[in-house]
Amino acid sequence: MGISVDKALGLHQEALALRVERSRILAGNLANVDTPGYLARDYDFKTALKDEANRIDAMNSHSALPAMNLSSDLKYRVPMQPSEDGNTSELGVEQTQFASNAMDFQTSLTFLNIKLSGIRKAIEGQ
Amino acid sequence: MAFNSIYDIAGTAMRAQTVRLNTVASNLANADSVSSTEKGAYHAIMPVFSTVYRKLDTGNEITGPYLGSATVQVADLVRSDRTIEKRYEPGNPIADKKGFVYYGNVNVVEEMADMMSASRTFQTAADVISRTNSMQQGLLRLGQSV
Question: What interface predicted TM-score (ipTM) does this complex get?
């Protein structure tokens, strides 16, 4: 019986990639916090990850690989307090989202590390 | 993994805010500049920011063609068209024939608020960089602590 490392690691590696993409979008929002008329965007993260899980399922059952398409998941932020210049990027909101996204990235990393140590133990037969 | 473009984005934010801080500094420095003509009076300078949406290079599976990053750039520097203050100061050595001098149109309170906003956003960009840095380092150490 062979071990498929990809399968053993599960969805976490996809989650990491999504987290990096999201932090880029959020960094863009933060960079444009003073730009008039800028419309802040963000992922609907749950939907994006669900799509990704479906894609992996499809990959396992068929040989064809549907392309990962993240751009359709980008939504526009609804501001808590609309500003006069039309900018919907709010410093507080974007900062919290960025911080929590970075934290979730670390969480996924930790899970991956735990899984990797599990795989190593299995290989070494401990 | 597109860590590099995050550094780019934060970098453009820092650059834009530095330009803004520069204009604030020159405006504040010239807050009391006087001139003998209305044209020669100091006009406050203000940067105009604009968003640059970047398409990402395809080929990487994770990036769709329109999943762009949004960087910021200084589109232009404009001179404030607020009215120039004309004061009657006949004792001033550069007063015109009628005894008037012209003061620049710098609003010091506005400039101070602008300065705080600029340094706050600069700080945020620095924070983005350090957080991205720790994310990247965590990724590099993946599997090492097993």
Answer: 0.80
